[in-house]
């Protein structure tokens, strides 16, 4: 069995949005706040499930892009073909309006629109996502013996496929040990929430022997990480966090 890579999984979402944009382009009158209800991927990524918010956000983002004036002709052609820049009833009418406005032949207009749809698919599934980002919240509480009690909460939209969070403990010598983390899962119409059944302990760091805890969360898009320190930390201890892509690493060291 061949596992899908993170890039492969991400392409599934891009393809889904691309297909929805093409369907909206083909539809009579194009994309609107009402018809956005027919496109669940865009609705979830742009509006947290609300079609009106998703439609307004897409309009706003497209206008922002056009205002930059930096190689945006393809996006503008896509906007016309989606009915956001033309009142034409069919996509051919809307493409014709764009050609008339800028002096392009039909084939040129179609190529621009196809390219713009591809660019919008990428933007909607990356830069333009606002609320629908998987979020991992980590909570650390230092104990009287200087160890840290760790728990976390992972929240992802139902639409976005993510694997289980993988916590790995790393000692000062670089030795790695998978943390046995049993999760409790709660699913609603909008989200999937996973929490630890029981917190686990990150052993106390020693002078010149820091300890690290790495969280990896693979899936269709990169998650957002939030680090929370609950209560005070002993003055000689420093807790830091660093994120890169689909991973966050906590580091604990002694300064004296």
Please specify the SSE layout and strand pairing.
Elements: H1 6-26, H2 40-47, H3 51-68, H4 73-81, H5 91-102, H6 106-124, E1 135-142, E2 148-157, E3 166-170, E4 176-178, E5 183-187, E6 191-196, E7 200-202, E8 211-216, E9 224-229, E10 237-244, E11 247-254
Parallel strand pairs: 1-9
Antiparallel strand pairs: 1-2, 2-6, 2-7, 3-4, 3-8, 5-6, 8-11, 10-11
Could you walk me through the main structural features you see in this protein, from its secondary elements to its overall organization?
With 256 residues, this protein is of the alpha+beta class. It folds into 2 domains: 6-124, no CATH class; 135-254, Immunoglobulin-like (Sandwich). The protein is built from 6 helices and 11 strands. The chain has helices at residues 6-26, 40-47, 51-68, 73-81, 91-102, 106-124, and strands spanning 135-142, 148-157, 166-170, 176-178, 183-187, 191-196, 200-202, 211-216, 224-229, 237-244, 247-254. Strands 1, 2, 5, 6, 7 and 9 form a 6-stranded mixed β-sheet that branches. Mean pLDDT is 87; it is low at 1-6.
